[in-house]
Amino acid sequence: MSRIAGRFAELKAAGRKALIPYVTAGDPLKASTVPLLHGMVEAGSDILEIGVPFSDPMADGPAIQRASERALKNGIGLSDVLGFVKTFREKDNLTPVVLMGYANPIEAMGVEKFVAAAKVAGVDGVIVVDYPPEECGPFADLCGKAGIDCIFLLAPTSTDARIREVARAGTGYLYYVSLKGVTGVKSVDVAEVAAQLPRLRAASKLPIGVGFGIRDAESALAISKIADAVIIGTRIVQEIESAGAEHAVARVKALLAPIRKALDS
Q: What pLDDT, on the 0 to 100 scale, is given for residue 187?
């Protein structure tokens, strides 16, 4: 059983929902990433998503675009991100880690080289925004053989055929994008998400994580009543941006702690 599957099984047995925060690797500083990862676990996070900086992030709103720009100015590339995971694993071999990004850095490294390096580093899953399931069979096969989950995005506009395809190809969990558009520009519509999730559950037994538009304990609690995981990215990245390197870890922990408390209430 993968770390991701094991973590969801533990949570289900305990009647709890997963908290999945996102940070961009290398933001605000190269030295900030690993302490942020540990800090988020200390605040009660169950799975970590790490953004791989990219110059043209099509699904990301302004806040995460700025985070990628800062990371790229810090010289952060895919090899550095894998290095962060490897360092994180020196103290934490239990928390699942998912890399989220785009195909270009992976293809620049070489798909086989990336999968092998990700396995060695301790990566548990990958979300490649511009690798739709029907176009990444060989990549998904390589990941599967390495024990790395391929996690795909679904959205309000996803057709029944696309949902079936993602259910067939995906592992780990399904990532439901709750909004039409990029990250961080709207608040989540809980009723709309509740109306859509039965379609996903009918197609797949994988846990469902909901992201985009979740910003606080109230919205996280509402989503947790209908989904298996709450994914929070933009709000964390904004907190890091305003806090700066010196206070980033403390501010992110302070943001996540009441969200964790709400999910467990």
A: 67
* pLDDT of amino acid 182: 44
Set 10, 42, 46, 49: catalytic member: 49
Q: How far apart are CA 43 and CA 257, in angstroms?
A: 5
Please tell me the least confidently modeled range out of 80-94, 111-125, 207-221: 207-221
Host H or E run for residue 65: helix 62-73
pLDDT tens digits along 104-142: 999 999 999 999 999 999 999 999 999 988 888 899 999
246 given a catalytic annotation: no
Name the more confident of 180 and 48: 48
Q: What is the maximal distance between C-alpha atoms in the chain? A: 47
Q: Which amino acid is at 126?
A: V
DSSP state of 170: -
Instruction: Answer yes or no: 49 catalytic.
Output: yes
Q: What are the C-alpha distances in Å from 114 to residues 64, 109, 117, 210, 214?
A: 23, 6, 5, 27, 31
Distance in angstroms (rounded) separating the CA atoms of residues 198 and 195: 7
User: CB within 8 A of 225, min separation 6: which ones?
Assistant: none
* Angle CA 103–107–108, to nearest 5: 115
Beta-strand pair 153-154/149-150: unpaired
* The one catalytic residue among 10, 42, 46, 60: 60
Topology (CATH) of 3-263: TIM Barrel (3.20.20)
CA dist 8 and 10 (Å) reads 5
Share above pLDDT 70 across residues of the chain, in percent, rounded to a whole number: 97
